[in-house]
Amino acid sequence: MAIARIAALIVLIVSAFGQESSSDAIQKHRAELEQNPRNSLSHFLLGELLFDQHDFQSSANEFRAALSGDPHPKWLDAWAHIDLGEVFDRNHQRERAVHEYKLASQTNDNTEDAQVFAAQRLSDGVSGADVSLHHVLARYIVPFRYVDGPKPILKVPPEYSQEARVAELEGAVTLSAAIASNGGVTEVALTESLGLGLDEAAKAAAKRWLFEPDVTENGAAPRMTTIELDFLLSSKRSRWHLLRVAFATPEGASRPRFAEADYPVGDGIGPGAYDDAHLIGAMGRKALVTLSFDVDQAGHPVRFQVQTATEPVWGNEAISIVRRWRFVPGSKGGNPVSVPCSLDLAWGEKTFTQSSLLWARKAFETKLP
């Protein structure tokens, strides 16, 4: 079974908050069901764990119970039908599997790409298909660093906005969330912004998260938690990374928008930076540059100034990159206007990790390489 992404996320949570064996988790969910036999979420999670132990009949029973239990979100309907379909596929009952995948499609819920997954399974045409847990974890890890408070049991990843993809903006959005006693998110507030539509994407995703219910006080005041979501691009071709962009938009004007951000493939540096690149690479560090410039009425970046740089050569390298970028210019009263902009660029490994992103953010905050 391609263990539903939700199960993979549970594994990640377990690794982050302390190891819990499958047998312990099964006992926990069974104890919860003794208290509330119609708890759909407990039935669903128990079904996932039983499937992982190849107890297919018992897991199918749990998925059916999840579908008929207490009122629950659509994502559970979608994934319970998908999981039932995979039970039937593993037992070479293709027609019954197809029926379940179609029911999942009819929910129209795409949490964790449920619709994509159901469509893929419908087109597989092969029963007994298997995807290893390692593959699921490698592909569907939610960019998530820290939660202070209740533990999440369902984490919906945010989607990149189109403009942020064009700009290849990477970074983190930090949110404060209120959690109801049933584990649902009732309110989300932005505490650290990233921009270019990623703040809105993070808030939309966080509202669909689910946390461990508070079984001790039904109807108690919402619990507060902190969620930090990382936006990291896994298919970078360049060693350059845009980590911050800010426009000083005049009052009454619209800000410029990224139309094209052309990053050089590979190292993307000139001969003058080779020696320093080798040195910082050997030290496991990054080159950091803060630039300011104006986006003129034609959408071209002009009048560059290097605010900070690990070495002067990196300021020149960054200017040569950004000079080729193009914007839809800001406007006021229907006329294009020049708008000041500042940004942070880092040069390092092609794919940033959470730790390298955190290092770069702290370095920019302290203005030290």
Defining key terms:
about 40% helix, 3 domains, about 375 residues, disordered N terminus, elongated, alpha+beta, TolA/TonB C-terminal domain, Serine Threonine Protein Phosphatase 5, Tetratricopeptide repeat
Describe what you observe in this structure:
- By secondary structure, the chain is of the alpha+beta class.
- It has 3 domains: 135 residues, Tetratricopeptide repeat domain (Serine Threonine Protein Phosphatase 5, Tetratricopeptide repeat, Alpha Horseshoe), CATH 1.25.40; 90 residues, TolA/TonB C-terminal domain (2-Layer Sandwich), CATH 3.30.2420; 127 residues, TonB (TolA/TonB C-terminal domain), CATH 3.30.2420.
- Helix content is 40%, strand content 23%.
- The chain has 13 helices and 14 strands.
- It has a 4-stranded antiparallel beta sheet with strand order 1-6-3-4. A 4-stranded antiparallel beta sheet has the order 7-14-9-10.
- Helix 3 runs antiparallel to helix 4 and helix 5 runs antiparallel to helix 6.
- The longest helix has 17 residues.
Poorly predicted ranges (pLDDT <50, ≥5 residues)?
Answer: 1-20, 126-142
Which class of secondary structure composition applies to the elements? Answer: alpha+beta
Rough outline: elongated
Chain-averaged pLDDT? 82
- Whole-number count of domains: 3
- Percent of residues in β-strands: 15-25%
Proper CATH architecture of the largest domain:
Alpha Horseshoe
Q: Termini separation (Å)? A: 46 Å
Describe the largest sheet.
4 strands, antiparallel
CATH superfamily of the largest domain, please? Tetratricopeptide repeat domain
Strand order of the largest sheet: 1-6-3-4
CATH topology of the largest domain: Serine Threonine Protein Phosphatase 5, Tetratricopeptide repeat
Radius of gyration: 24 Å
Helix content: 40-55%
**Total E-strand runs:** 14
Order of helices and strands: HHHHHHHHEEHEEHEEEEHEEHEEEEH
CATH class value of the largest domain: Mainly Alpha
Total helices: the number is 13
